[in-house]
Amino acid sequence: MGTRIFAAPQLSLRFVHVWSRNLLVWRKLAIPSMLGNLADPMIFLFGLGYGLGAMMPAVQGVSYVTFLAGGMVVSSTMYAATFEAMYSAFSRMHQQKTWEGILNAPILLEDVVLGELFWATTKATLSGVSILVVVTLLGVASPSYALAVLPVIVVTGLAFAAVGLAMNALAPNYDFFMYYFTLVITPTSLLSGVFFPIDQLPGSLQAAAAVLPLYHAVALARPLMLGDIPQDVLLHLAVPLGYAAVGFYVALVLTRRRLLK
Amino acid sequence: MSQAVLSVAGLRKRYGSEEVVAGIDFEVQAGECFGLLGPNGAGKTTTLKLCLGLIEPDAGEIRLLGRTVPGEAREARQQVGVIPQFDNLDPDFSVRENLQVYGRYFGMKKKDIEARIPQLLEFAGLSGREAAKIQTLSGGMKRRLTLARALVNDPEVVFLDEPTTGLDPQARHLIWERLKSLKQEGKTLLLTTHFLEEAERLCSRLVIMDHGRIIALGSPRELIAKHIEPHVVEVHGPGFEAWAEKVRPQAGRVEIVGETAFCYAQDEEPVVASLKSEPELIYLHRPANLEDVFLKLTGRDLRD
After folding, report:
1. How far apart are CA B30 and CA B128, in angstroms?
2. What interface predicted TM-score (ipTM) does this complex get?
3. What confidence tens digit (pLDDT) does each residue in B174-224 have?
4. What pLDDT, in 10s, does the model give residues B200-210?
5. Number of domains into which chain B is organized
6. Chosen domain end from B199, B221, B243
7. Nearest CB to A1; choose among B56, B93, B102
8. Do B84 and A100 touch (CB under 8 A)?
9. Are B90 and A96 in contact (CB < 8 Å)?
10. What is the distance between the alpha carbons of residues B38 and B267, in angstroms, rounded to a whole number?
């Protein structure tokens, strides 16, 4: 047999039960969790933005902190999605055996993985949106198209949650996730134009950046937060959504291989 | 027309070079408590997981509640309760929340779950502990909550994987009483255990598994009658081996294990009589039980 490992997912609304289980747990710790999610990127944004920015001329015609804000919103979305899909999901899958309990009920593994995907996306969205709100209120970002950044945050969350869940399925232990952060997430944030315009990079690295989902998210979020309409919107949405769809399927196949054998 | 709630035919599962389930067939009838017995590594838990559609068989057919497993396992599980070998209660939730959230996995409405919670807590002896955190519960309470959780959907069949392993006698007896009352209610139970006493008390029929195969099937009484002499005399003390040699012709079957001689006899009289003249020897005369059958069929070697 073994063919069922690769079978197309039987998608249904049952994922909502998994999602709302996580929501119920989160609600107990919502305030500290939100503050924690907000503190780290804000320290980065204002520390680098004002500290480093004070020594810099305008970047692409705006102050450095304003330039950085657009990148920071989507990169902290990436971090939040990745953390939730790896460390937290791994706790539920491996340490607490929460998934095992759920799978004894009439719930399929695709429901669990999809519920976790949407949950990690939800948390990532909360993280991205809270930074967006703060920088908009402080006047660092333009309010004109602030609402339009929301879908960008959501697709960024979906992409990194899906890839994170695939890593989760491969992880023998928590230490494994460090490799992913060091080898994938850190280079991604440096190559995607979060901290500096990527035309600073050699041509080969610019080409590499174009396949990274975060690069496309930055290409949408930054102009929107400057009050401009971005270009190539469909392409920039399609790449992260492609990562989300392929990442979900790969995560499902790998998790089936791990748990259903 | 068969009343089988679960039927398994030609079931096989291999992990690497080891065939953990090596071609087994059995049927569980509605309303019975059916036991899967065997030493560690016999394939009991794997069999349960296969029957629930949680892992993929290499070969064989499984039907559970009229559904084909694993193809329609999800639909079958709608009517099944599961008590896993190791508790997987949700540590982030209270007792009540564990039941609420688990009910939702069955698609139950909030008010139907709420209506069921008081009786589930009562059944599990956890009334008044709704708000307790899982970490504050004793091992026995956790096991009872796991039992209550498995009943949240009012299942027709309950799968129990070593339900009383690791519990103290009080907790174990309470679980046994609860399982008996489930039997009274007409629920079908499928139970794995290596507690022979548990199987003897609860199971209407059972199979003994070893190395992935079924090596005996029947009611506890039938198995004892078929495989073992009715009387057992266990003897130890100085000179027990010499005594055993002397008594061997009248004793039926004599087995020497370490410092003890086990005499399995149709008629215990001559054995017990010969012990009267051996004041040094300590003996225990008892009826044969399922453990004797189990040890005879699966051997006395340790399984780790």
Report:
1. 34
2. 0.91
3. 999 999 999 999 999 999 998 888 999 999 999 999 999 999 999 999 999
4. 999 999 999 99
5. 3
6. B221
7. B56
8. yes
9. yes
10. 29
